[in-house]
Design brief:
By secondary structure, the chain is of the alpha/beta class. The chain has twelve helices and nine strands.
């Protein structure tokens, strides 16, 4: 464990700037899970949030190759300023890819759950913190709500799906490529029943190629509504109304499964937590704008939830 004092300089709107000093620890939880702990200096034990990233080879900052928006980094830093500690970590596939040992056939959705549980159990033993919360973004929402069961003091879903992943993909295809919907539904049904799909259209190869089918199959075994209902701790469900990937209807489905949850749709927030005032082009560009701040309302909603629970 290496304790680092890191100085970040944040520039806002050209000449205006503010400097903040963050106390950070770089931690290795398992051989495949490494991340950054931001620990505010307070007289009391601060609450801790564990931040779980979304789909793909997402690192601790919310970035991937050719896509740098720093969404999760900005979220952690914003919470730090509110007196809330955070741990965010690289998904295991980031480490595996760096090792040159990537084999898609061997990756299962359960691997991400296993990692999230390992992180949660690690910090449950750390007496520097008060209550422990899990924040799951996108795919990380389902991972997080499973890891949080009987382990965390609260759970926060940001842009999380409210349906099983095959239903989510079919709904997306209905909007983007309706001609592929029937074949996709049949292929998912084959995969669910037989563990393999063979008669899929070439247009669906990115979803059903043989190497990735074991991962999709393992992901399909979990229904977010069922998993969320298992939680007996406070829950916050958040979605942005500018999210092009996860519709507000997905958050509504989660809220229906957990009606006692706190539910918030944030105006102008997109999938990578940025505030979008323009059209879909501006929305898409924000995925690769590393210095564009995240939604201030999101930060306030999360902070209020933690402070009140």
């Amino acid at each position: 464990m290496t304790k680092l004092l890191i100085l970040f300089t944040l520039f806002w709107f050209g000449t205006n700037f503010a400097q903040y000093t963050y106390t950070a620890e770089e931690l290795k939880i398992t051989p495949l899970v490494e991340g950054t702990l931001l620990l505010p200096e307070t007289s009391e034990k601060p609450p801790l949030v564990i931040i779980i990233g979304g789909s793909g080879p997402t690192d601790r900052n919310g970035n991937q190759n050719m896509m740098k928006n720093n969404s999760l980094k900005f979220l952690a830093e914003a919470l730090y300023k509110k007196g809330i500690a955070s741990f965010r970590y690289d998904k295991r596939i980031v480490k595996i890819m760096k090792m040159g040992a990537m084999d898609e056939k061997k990756i299962k959705f359960d691997d991400f759950i296993e990692d999230a549980i390992a992180v949660t159990e690690h910090f449950k033993k750390d007496n520097r913190f008060g209550k422990l919360y899990i924040i799951g973004h996108s795919q990380g929402s389902l991972v997080g709500m499973i890891a949080a069961q009987n382990r965390a003091d609260g759970f926060i879903s940001i842009a999380g799906a409210g349906q099983e992943i095959d239903d989510v993909i079919v709904d997306q295809l209905a909007k983007q490529a309706p001609g592929l919907v029937d074949n996709a539904r049949e292929s998912f049904d084959d995969l669910r029943v037989n563990g393999v799909a063979q008669n899929y259209s070439p247009g669906l190869a990115s979803i059903f190629r043989p190497d990735i089918q074991p991962f999709i199959y393992s992901w399909m075994q979990y229904n977010p509504q069922i998993e969320l209902a298992k939680l007996n701790t406070p829950v916050l469900i958040v979605n942005g109304d500018k999210d092009l990937q996860v519709q507000v209807s997905e958050a509504e489905a989660l809220y229906k499964a957990k009606p006692q949850a706190t539910y918030k749709v944030i105006p102008k927030m997109n999938h990578v937590l940025k505030e979008i005032n323009g059209n879909d082009l501006e929305n898409s560009k924000s995925y690769n704008q590393y210095n564009l701040p995240i939604s201030e309302e999101l930060i306030n909603v999360i902070t209020q939830f933690i402070e009140s629970n």
